[in-house]
Amino acid sequence: MTRLTTIDDERRNIAELLRDWPPAAVDAIIQEMLALWNAEDLCDRICWRWNSRLRTTIGRALLEEMILELNPILLGRNPDEMRGVVVHELAHLVTTSRYGFAVAPHGRQWKSLMYAAGESARATHTLNVDGLRVKAKRRRRRRKSAVEAFIARFRGSL
Ligand SMILES: [Zn+2]
To answer: pLDDT, tens digit, for every residue of 48-97?
Structure first.
């Protein structure tokens, strides 16, 4: 069932999410998982942050930077997914650091970490993303401005 979410609902969801998941709580999951996976050596290299610009992606792993990003809007709507998403994205970082960038993102190495963590090894979510998709026109504009920003930065460094 879908329903329209008001801005107030969304704000309340996010406020509750941030209250229930202070940084120490997220850090604790990361530490627990790294210990479980014998990957504690990665602890100092891995960072995580909320990214409110994520749209229909609930979380993502920036493999080169070793950063885990979480979507506060989608997780605010689905707080029960929080632990699973942190574990899912963290498993990507651990898999890549162990097996390199050529490893299949949701292949057996990643799946074995998920099973060890007692989490589902599904690759995608089927959550309500009403209102979160970016309209084509807006996406084009954003891409152009990102290019412009890149060019400006490049120019500035010359
Ligand atoms: Zn994934």
So the answer is: 999 999 989 999 999 999 999 999 999 999 999 999 999 999 999 999 99
Residue 88: CB atoms within 10 A of its CB come to 26
Tokens of 153: 């930065």
Sorting pLDDT into bands at 50, 70 and 90, what band is 117? very high
Global pTM?
0.80
Distance 156 CA to ligand 1 centre (A): 36
Considering the four listed CATH numbers 3.90.220.20, 3.30.2010.10, 3.60.15.10, 3.30.70.1230, the one that applies to the domain covering 7-133 is 3.30.2010.10
What are residue 110's phi and psi, to 5 degrees?
-65, -45
Closest CA to 15 of 71, 86, 94, 76: 76
Is 133 within 8 Å of 73 (Cβ atoms)?
Answer: no
Residue 121 Cα, ligand 1 centroid: separation in angstroms? 9
More confident residue, 31 or 2: 31
Distance between CA atoms of residues 104 and 13, nearest Å: 34
- CA 63 / ligand 1 centre spacing (Å): 11
